[in-house]
Write a structure and sequence with these properties.
Radius of gyration: 19 Å
Largest sheet: none
Distance between the termini: 51 Å
Order of helices and strands: HHH
Low-confidence stretches: none
Strand content: under 5%
Shape: flat
Number of helices: 3
Mean pLDDT: 87
Number of strands: 0
Helix content: over 70%
Number of domains: 2
Structural class: mainly alpha
Length: 90
């Protein structure tokens, strides 16, 4: 366990640093008005993919945490349908 501790600390510090960098860049783009509108159609498509995948994964592994994949899919479908008027045409 003691051999892995420095590696875990280093990976945690790297992850936090990258997260802070991404957050600063996102806030800067939002402040400048360069932050694009999300593609809500992609949320809907991703939700329709995740919703049916979560239940078989949950049943096959008997891990209730995998049921969250279906929940995430349902949330994505709701977000996509709530913003249906903003769907981007492809």
């Amino acid at each position: 366990m003691s051999e892995l501790f420095p590696i875990i600390v280093i990976l945690t510090v790297i992850a936090l640093a990258l997260g802070i960098i991404v957050l600063v860049i996102a806030l800067k783009k939002k402040k400048e008005g360069k932050y694009p509108e999300p593609d809500y159609r992609a949320f809907f498509i991703l939700g329709t993919c995740l919703l049916p995948v979560g239940v078989p994964l949950w049943i096959s592994t008997n891990n209730p945490g995998l049921l969250g994949i279906s929940g995430l899919g349902a949330v994505y479908i709701i977000i996509g349908l709530a913003h249906r008027d903003k769907w981007k045409k492809t």
